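Review box. Two proteins, two foldings.
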Amino acid sequence: MSLITTLLLALSVSADAFAVSVGTGISEKKIRTQDAMKMAFSFGFFQAMMPIIGFGVASMFAATIERYDHWIAFGLLGYIGANMAYEGYKWDDEEVTTKNIFGLRSLIILGIATSIDALAVGVSLTATTDDIFLPALCIGVVTFITSFIGIEFGKKWWEQIGKNAEIIGGLILIGIGTKILISHLMA
């Protein structure tokens, strides 16, 4: 697999993580650089690990993974998005509640939800390469970079949108989950 092909694959696989990062940047009023780095690392880590896992178990579970991956992503992103939208709806300027979207549990859920398709990529890469580690590393690094950029991009939007940002961010997550579900059901 050529470097250009690997980079294009990495960019396409990182698209969901980028969109979730933009949604997070939109929904959070204040994001510390270390929180943005934690989210970007989580997304990059899971995007890099899932192709390795998929590559390793390709022959055993390929059909099962492909049948349910879109439902899992839809459920996880829908759950997080609905919670974010609900918190935005309940927003009270006097009582700003601190969510923990950058907590370990949320980062793991979002990391898995945005990287389930990368599992299928790992399965498909068994046909084109004998070494999964270089493509997986490339996918992880590209996802880290695009996720960090996405959060920063979303933060700029927050300034324009104000307190409705959390509702919009939650709806974006629900939309991404729905897009994943529909694209798999229509394929």
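Next protein.
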Amino acid sequence: MAQARTHYGKVAAPRHIAGVELATHRLDLFKFLMICMILFTVVSVFHVWSRFKLVDLNLQISEASRQLKEAEQEQKRLSLEVASLRTPGRIESIAKGELGMALPSEQQVILVK
């Protein structure tokens, strides 16, 4: 055994690992990933905000539509009330009953030419 000889001629030389280069590469990768995560977060927040605004605007539109239908129904009701208040029979009954008015006699009518 004393005579056993080892031959290192075909052994690869150890590679020189530059710690500074590896740390710089990792730092650049970390910066890139952080920027990507921040952009993803900003886009996600914008997406959620836009969906929230969309739902809010849809609620406002439905509320405005409901108010419009109510106003149209109120307008129809008031138009019917105006039409019923303008009837000649009603006006005549109020004039005779509440105001004490009567149709003019022939002596009270004067024809103007």
